[in-house]
Here is the input.
Amino acid sequence: MNKRRWLNIGLLVLVSLLGLWAWYEGRDTALPPRSLTTLAPATVNKIEIVRRDHGNIILTGQGDDWWLTKPVRIPASRFRVESILGLLAADSLAQFPVAGKDLAAFDLADPALRVRYNNTELQFGGMTPVDQRRYVRVGDTVHLIVDSYSLDLMADAPEFASRNLVPTQQRITSLATPAFQLEQGADGKWLVEPAGYGLSADEIQAVIEKWQHAQAVKVALYQSAPARGTVTLALAGQQGALRYEITSEEPEWVLARPEVGLEFHLSAEQGRQLFRPAANHEKASPEL
Here is the structure.
């Protein structure tokens, strides 16, 4: 191999190394994407979702304790709240100032969807025709984002409610169902009525734990139906009991709260565990 060829190979290797170095340098010094807002989620204690012709939603709280307060008052879905708070830090792919723009061209003259975090308002406009990015106005700036939020924000009210039958930070002290009643005494021990219901102390505790952590398969708008029975739960430190009407049993159990216009749907297996623990126990026991 002659010297010219060796020289060409050496130059090629040098150019490749320089290109690789430039790529790494560019990657390390690249600016992070701009966030839609600079508002910290931890500072937010009120979220208002204003929706044209669809009913407004108000969520209040902080940390792990959030409540849906409009259209009804009930613990909020933690997953839904975290998703909405995540919008604050969504990547802004491009921006332009509001001044001098025809906002109607971006469906921002009269937005169909607005979200207020404390006093910071985000207005949702239309979509770009080619890459389907959403126009979102924040103050004097219009941003373009990948929109994975609109469907959640436009969901029906039950989607914003927690699926927990018992609020996560509250503890059951008594439970009454059509078949049995459990009550915690001053010594912390649980008593069952009727006395011969057929549950050991450990099984009673397991039933309470199942109720304490039970989550509905879905929450829906209340559909008026005759009550087949009721469930009453007393909670530590709370005045007044939490009450559900049983409007459907197997194959799907439905526990309704008519006063808040919602009903909680449970699977057949959940219903058996919560309402028929003695039958489950007898089924599992070996024959003598």
Notes: The first strand starts at residue 34 and ends at 35. The mean pLDDT is 87.
